[in-house]
Amino acid sequence: CRKFGYQVVDDFKGKPAQIAPYHTPDGVLVGQKVRSPDKTFCVLGSIKTAGLFGQHLHRSDGKWVVVTEGEIDTLSVSQALGNKWPVVSVPNGAQGAKKALAAQLEWLLGFDHVILWFDQDDAGREAVEECGGLFPPGRCKVARMSGFKDANDALRAGKAGDIVSAVWGARTWRPD
Fold first, then answer.
1. CB proximity list for 122: less than 8 A, separation 6 or greater
2. pTM, two decimal places
């Protein structure tokens, strides 16, 4: 949470909440996404000009980057990887993934491989299919972990080692 600036507050409009800061790719804070316990969201400021969640923390090139469907999954994967590898999230979940990745395509193509780790539900699988085609053949990989909906569920179950294995064992995306 410290690395990404993710906060938990006791009282936001009478309820506890989690706050994910959104920055432009060069690090300017432009908005905050507030998540309440019932999984409703609101945005303070604007995240339209922001990059991917956590993007400003990482350089624009390298061997690989992991892209998750949500901020908490980004925190979970990063923690499992010792906070040493680039992990980012799309800002609006599976339904907005293709648009978010297309907007940051130049940055993503600075990496040899882009590893998509979206939720193991219909929306997540559909988003993988939509987003995989954005990348040149062989550059997009897909991380999956059976038995868990997402990376956070796996981390909470004490499976950090399995998260690392899922990232290292990500398979190259191939269209149907």
1. none
2. 0.95
